[in-house]
Amino acid sequence: MNRRTAHRWLRVLRTPMGRTAAALVLVVLVLAVVGPAPWNARADAVDTANILAGPSAQHWAGTDNLGRDIAFRVLEATRLSVGLALAATAIGVVAGLLLGTAPWLLGRRLGRLVTGAVQIAIAFPGLLLALFFAVVFGVGATGAALAIGLAGAPTFARLVQTLLAGVAARDFVAAARIAGVGRLRILVRHLLPNIAEPLVVNATIGAGGALLAFAGLSFLGLGVQAPSYDWGRLLYDGIGVLYVNPAAAIAPALAVLVAGLALNLLGESVAKGFGMDALVGLPASASPSPAAAAGPAQPAAERPADDAPDDVVLDVRDLTVSFPAAAGPIRPVRGVTFSIRRGEAVGVVGESGSGKSLTALAVSRLVDAAGRVDADRLHLLGTDLREGDSAAQRRLLGSSLAMVFQDPASSFNPTQRIGRQLAETSRHHHGLGRRAAFARAVDRLRAVRITDPDRRARQYPHEFSGGMRQRAMIGMGLMGSPALIVADEPTTALDVTVQRQVLDLLTAIRTSDAVALLLISHDVAVVSEVCDRVLVMYAGRIVEDLPTDRLTTGALHPYTRALTAAVPRMDSPLDRPLPVIPGRPVDPADVPPGCAYAARCPLASQRCRDEDPPLARHPSGHRVACWHARPEPAHAEAVRPASVVEAS
Amino acid sequence: MTAGPAPAPEIGAAVEQAPATGASPFRRLAGHPWSRFALRRAGRLLVSLWVLVTASFLMIHLVPGDPVRAALGPTAPAALVAERRAALGLDDPLYTQYLAYLKDLLGGDLGTSILTRLPVSDVVGQRLPATLALATLAFLAAVAIAVPVGVVIGVLTRRGHGRRTEAAFSSGSIVLGTIPDFLLGVGLVYLLGVTLQWLPVAGNATPAGYVLPVLSLAVGPAAILARILRVEMVAVLDADYLRTARAKRLPARSLYLGHALPNAATASLTLSGLILGSMVAGTVLVENVFAWPGLGTTIVRSILSKDYPLVQAIVLVYGLGVLLINTAVDVALALLDPRSTIRED
């Protein structure tokens, strides 16, 4: 613990801001401690011949109305200013600790009263509280210190309460309580040490604030009174003679500013340095092998030339998505070629990380600006989507392409009514007025079987159930006249009964309007039920493209067979463990030179490891990328039964 | 953030009533999130008001010694002191005084200044407009600076874009946000008033006189607001619903201003409420820098001269201002994000 703390402090000192702030705080503290002695005499030396003189070699910041040297007075005032600020901070911390720990010590009822009082006090700004207390305690240094300290107490109390609540819920506190340890003892022994660190950081920031506040009160004439002086008092005197000797005001102002900023910034840097601890464990980006980065593009061995062009909704050839990384770009999608015809439902299956979602985002042109999408061909309804962002392209994408995302809960804007979010599409792309667009939204909600759509359209997303939200999402896609629906795991976040409704709805829309569907799912069962054709993806490539009805019996690629075997069926033998695919998916930053599946494949040969098989048409009719593509060997052979997961 | 003690039965009631959407119109109204929110928020405002009024009443009694003697000075004749004490009702039992204070307050009577013998309400009425003008203008200026800056920087620094811009902006805004308004005021007076002589440095006689006070009050809060807004913008731009909005192929304007900004502003509002509240108090210091004929100069003068009735009244006015701002922020929050009406805090 201690070493960790020391390490964190060191890290704070390594940042430029942390280092500067710490150095400045040190200078101010040294000045405050050793300061006054050397220039005490000079700060108070009256020189009536030199009243209100401007800055000179003799007096750097000029003199005041008694001819005393301003620069030395500012230095001299360091001790009182810093001392009073620290005293006020100490008062604030003590009062805050008492108020903050009271709910823990006093039990529920009294504690609630204290919490409520703190809540109310915290609503009033510190300066107002300080003025209030300054009236009560009277004008002067002691009164001001008490006032500023107590004014800061509610904020600190709130912080203590919040931190305590977090720690008090932990197991070791519960254990101590069960063991019969008293509340006060638990507080001192277990709770406070655990929240000390953030408290110290906040007290540092608080000290900066107290310093500035003290300067403020003294500047108003409510703090330190003559003949004593702190920076605020010097500023108060200086502003009166601003036209005669501006330095008399500027010098103390700068001192306040530097000291206050230094304390504040030190606190901020420490808070930042400590808070960023969670970010240190960011994934150390694995270096991609040079082979992966310079890997051969998927030879476009087979072009779907047999598709009549006007029948094709989406035509994708050699699609690549890459993201810049420290050690060269990472390519999660590596040359994907497929096309979808009008009214056709195509599923994309694969493990997570296989690039299926990214493929969907890439064809819909929604990949984040950091990612780079390349393709030989990317046509939606015959329009090239690769270049530009014209209004025509946007209208085409906005009205002909519908997107359905995985999590309907987070995919709607929480601050806008559902109807408005749907209507937006029509208002932007079809030029409908507010009322007409809203009517269309209501109509579309009805089309996706939402009951009482008129009322529902006026509700917010949080008033919808999960299934309803997903249907509304589909309805949003139907605002235009979609030719293609891209649904990325549309049912994953929903429970089983609702899944069924959403899938039925997608199927109904597809069949009634001949809308094509690209359904991304990790769930082979869902895909085989809804789709005509399945694209099996592995490590950013399509490894097999086959009709759904052949999925269970006619799959040629060993990965496809392993994937389907891993799906439990009604006739799966209950006495045997469910087969799983051995090994781990490929890291997109580290793709092997040959077939990416080779490491996990029971049929892998040396050729597989050296040479990546192209996606080619197999005699049986569908496309497959495997050197050993052949129909249906015995299941036991394709899937190693060695890796065992208890079939539950 | 701005939370009051939520009464326990209300939480239970909220849970029970939540599904009753299809019930009779009356029940729907009673159980409606909005009416519950209004009740809860009004209750909190009332409790805070009561605390404020009681505190300002007690202030004069917490002062050690005899406040009237303190105000009039040691040389004042004992008879005069006794007379003023009687006039202020300070010789009555405490609860009688409290009730009288509440009664006067409800009738708009804020008492009489010990020193000038003028009705306090007249003084406040005369001074309040200048302070209100300063605070309102400074608030508008802070928002007018913070929103565009926060949004633009947020868009520029989304998802790890523009790391240098981010570093420069965040250190710049921390420094600007830490400089107290009165020091900024002194600096501006020196620079633009004394050295360059571009702008007047005292009073509100001309429109140009507003520039420096408003700036000194607005710059700090603007920097903090812009910083919060940037962080929220970056978070919101990464949200799923922004992807949905992009999927609708909306133009950048409605993407950033229509979808992202309201959500980012919502998240920033609670914190900005506290900042704006402290701007009200900040007027006290800034007014004293610029010799502004508002409440801030008056309260300082009356604290120094121990004119307690006047101090009490001005503390009440400031406190009321802060409470109203907090309430307004909560209402704005509810309008922007309807989920906050059902959130118990």
Automatic annotation (TrEMBL), chain A:
SUPFAM superfamilies: MetI-like, P-loop containing nucleoside triphosphate hydrolases. The chain crosses the membrane at residues 82-106, 127-153, 199-222, 242-266. Keywords: ATP-binding, Cell membrane, Membrane, Nucleotide-binding, Transmembrane, Transmembrane helix, Transport. GO terms for cellular component: plasma membrane. One of its GO terms (molecular function) is ATP hydrolysis activity. Residues 314-564 form the ABC transporter domain. CDD domains: ABC_NikE_OppD_transporters, TM_PBP2. It comes from the Bacteria. Residues 78-267 form the ABC transmembrane type-1 domain. One of its GO terms (biological process) is transmembrane transport. It is found in: Cell membrane; Membrane. Its main location: membrane. InterPro entries: AAA+_ATPase, ABC_Ni/Peptide_Import, ABC_transporter-like_ATP-bd, ABC_transporter-like_CS, MetI-like, MetI-like_sf, Oligopep_ABC_C, P-loop_NTPase. This is Peptide ABC transporter ATP-binding protein. It comes from Actinoplanes auranticolor.
TrEMBL record, chain B:
It comes from the Bacteria. GO terms for cellular component: plasma membrane. GO terms for molecular function: dipeptide transmembrane transporter activity. Its main location: membrane. The chain crosses the membrane at residues 45-63, 132-156, 168-190, 210-229, 310-336. Residues 128-329 form the ABC transmembrane type-1 domain. InterPro entries: BPD_transp_1_N, MetI-like, MetI-like_sf. It is found in: Cell membrane. Keywords: Cell membrane, Membrane, Transmembrane, Transmembrane helix, Transport. It is a multi-pass membrane protein. The keyword Nucleus does not apply. Belongs to the binding-protein-dependent transport system permease family. This is Peptide ABC transporter permease. It comes from Actinoplanes auranticolor.
